[in-house]
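This protein record is not my work; I was only asked to verify it. Take the sequence as given and treat only the tokens as open to question. I have pasted the whole thing underneath without changing anything:
***
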Amino acid sequence: MKPVVYVESSVISYLTARPNRDVVAAGRQTVTSEWWDNESARFELRVLALVEDEISRGDHVAAQSRLAVIENIPMVAVTEKARQLSSRLIQEQVVPKRSEDDALHIAIASTQGADYLLT
């Protein structure tokens, strides 16, 4: 059985973005593309409907490109247990209050048995 990787929206964005002139962003794009091309087949990939919502925003053509990447990746449900953990991560200041979506990503990956959270 392959390890499960929960894929966060920034991965999809870096994977499909036009090449960036910023050195840091370009580096992230390169690392993301290399992982996707060379390593992703070793894992069972999962995304959350929240990811679908996040990557649907912005330029329509770019959004369609991002959505095509996740087209065949199974979606993970948001459970009450994940919502509770997400709230606790914020209450305990493990995740900043302004990063509620990030807390939810962490909580879902944790409660749904993901081996890795790719962000």
